[in-house]
Amino acid sequence: MLTDPVADMLTRIRNANKALHDRAEMPSSKLKVEIARILKEEAKLVVELKYGRSRERVLTDLKRVSKPGRRIYARKDRLPRVLGGMGTAILSTSRGVVTSRTAEAQGIGGEVICFVW
């Protein structure tokens, strides 16, 4: 049994990306579907991974931030920036799973789920 399904999802995507696979399969949950939706919107990728013309990676890395043993929260005035705004931070807020840019625009904070760059 998995203790951290989101970390497992990110690891599966990271491993598939490094192995140049076309897609990554994993058990589904509402949170994972929302994370995948944001990845599709923000990183221009779907769980079926995209690559450049000569198979170069679109994603550099994914990092789980808040874990079951240590939750990380960000206030609305201290939202994380990934690579000076070049990457994406995904947060779980009272208004759903959103990027840090969306949370900033809405003036809300939340739990920092992961960074994507």
Write the layout of secondary structure elements.
Blueprint (H helix, E strand, L loop, with lengths): L4 H14 L11 H13 L19 E3 L8 E2 L13 E6 L2 E4 H7 L3 E7 L1
Antiparallel strand pairs: 1-5, 2-5, 3-4, 3-5
What features would you describe in this structure?
- The longest helix has 14 residues, at 5-18.
- The chain is globular, with a radius of gyration of 14 Å.
- Helix content is 29%, strand content 19%.
- The protein is built from three helices and five strands; from the N terminus they run H-H-E-E-E-E-H-E.
- Strands 1, 2, 3, 4 and 5 form a five-stranded antiparallel beta sheet that branches.
Order of helix and strand elements from N to C terminus:
HHEEEEHE
Overall geometry:
globular
First-residue to last-residue Cα separation: 29 Å
| Alpha plus pi helix count | 3
The largest β sheet comes out as: 5 strands, antiparallel
| Number of DSSP E strands | 5
Sheet-strand content, in percent, reads: 15-25%
Uncertain regions spanning at least 5 consecutive residues = none
Radius of gyration: 14 Å
Which class of secondary structure composition applies to the elements? alpha+beta
Mean pLDDT: 90
- Described by its quaternary structure, the protein is single chain
Helicity level, as a percent range?
Answer: 25-40%
Task: Write a brief caption for the model.
The protein is an alpha+beta fold and about 120 residues long. About 30% of the residues lie in helices and about 20% in strands.
